[in-house]
Amino acid sequence: MRISTDALVDAVTDVAGLHGTDASRLTGEQAAHWLARVSKVRHAADALIAGLAQRIEELSAPDAPSERFDRSRGFSSPAQLVSRVGNLTPADAGKLLGIGRALVAAPVERGEPTGPLARAVSAGEIGTEKASIVRRCMDELGEADIEFEAGLVRAARALDIPGLRALCLREVARRNHEAMLERERRQRASRSLRFFTEPDGMVALHGRLDPATAAPVRAWIDAEVRRTLADQRDLPPAERDPAQAAADALATMARHMLGCEDPAAGVKTTVLVRVSKEELESGVGVAECDGLETPVSIQSLRAMAVDAEVLPVVMGGGSLPLDLGRARRLFTRAQRLALAQRDGGCARCGAPVARCDVHHIRWWSRGGGTDLDNGVLLCVGCHHRLHDFGWDVKVRNGEVWFIPPSAVDPERKPQPSHRMRLRLERDPMPAVDGRPPGESTDRQPPSPERLVAA
Q1: What pLDDT was estimated at residue 251?
Q2: pLDDT digits (tens, 9 = 90+) for 131-152
Q3: What letter would DSSP give residue 354?
Q4: E strands within 225-332?
Q5: Integer Cα distance of 4 and 61 in angstroms
Q6: With contact defined as beta carbons under 8 Å apart, do 194 and 206 qualify?
Q7: Using CA atoms, how far apart are residues 348 and 108, in angstroms rounded to an integer?
Q8: Pairing state between β 286-289 and 270-274
Q9: Weakest-pLDDT range from 118-132, 302-316, 330-344
Q10: N or C: which end of the chain has fewer CB within 10 A?
Q11: Measured between alpha carbons, how far is 335 from 341 in angstroms, rounded to an integer?
């Protein structure tokens, strides 16, 4: 494969206008504009590093025609040499070596890679982490389908890293269910938790948990952190930050278990899980747990249900009264779960569900009802900012919109929620250009699966 510096030169040229700029004078939009372009420089440089790292690995192979290059330089492996010489972490060196292998393995025409992943990496369009996720997905599936690879690359451009990782895991579960079950078996076998004492006497923890093990632990600790922060909200200055509250929650859990006569009896926590009826019945597919980026298999979901209350999201029906109108002021647990499904966390900034409260859009004191169309999940900071600066909130057709004050936007164009913005980044819709909330449209943002299949 012929090395090309064209992408790096183009990216550097594109950011030349930034030279000499006073950073303190940049607006937020300008800073974001330049950040996106400077990131292309980094991605293009990583592509070159990956190609060079692969060559070092090739020269360090046991069957190399001469002495192994890594050993001749005093290193035990190519990864160690790349890490030291490139001033990289071992994890980053390993990822770049993997990308280098993908570049070499890609079809080549006139010295240029023709595979979708190799082209995107060489052009600096996607970074090392996303490229590693795509490559790992292809490796697990053993897929040589160019169209499928192109779909994953399209998704990598559109999604954030957690979204891309979840998409690839779902694709593995759908196309090669045994591969996902094997991964979960490896994860369970690799779970660990270790304590060690640091020089200053502090006790440190290092652990790795498979998703099914982590789900109830994280759900309980997140709930305790939220309760703690809510209790101290009106006590300036805050007594504990979220990390301290999480540490205290872990200690509280241990103290409770030490004094519990029957620690194995009863339901220990509640884990909110989203799963389709078809996947649950067939046993093939994945379930998504709140608070975890990694979906779990249906088999893991069933195992979790033995010892933890696994609650499916219910958006209505006779079993849960989700629309209480003026019957009561506080939102019920069922309503909160429904809003968590709709908003996915803070509707404004995307903060985790555990750090949000349900707020009346039209205040209860002014006649607002306690129902889903009058409720929105907001973190404390966003809630205060909306009130302090005069923003309005509207819910139309199950979507949350934020209406800026005239001081921010004289036309007061509706702005989409955090969850909707993520979808619109994949398939921009005219709604962000000022369509009033609630105006009907036949176009729907595509699911991540449609990005792959497109």
Answers
A1: 85
A2: 889 988 888 887 667 888 888 9
A3: G
A4: 270-274, 286-289, 296-297, 309-312
A5: 25
A6: yes
A7: 45
A8: antiparallel
A9: 302-316
A10: C
A11: 10
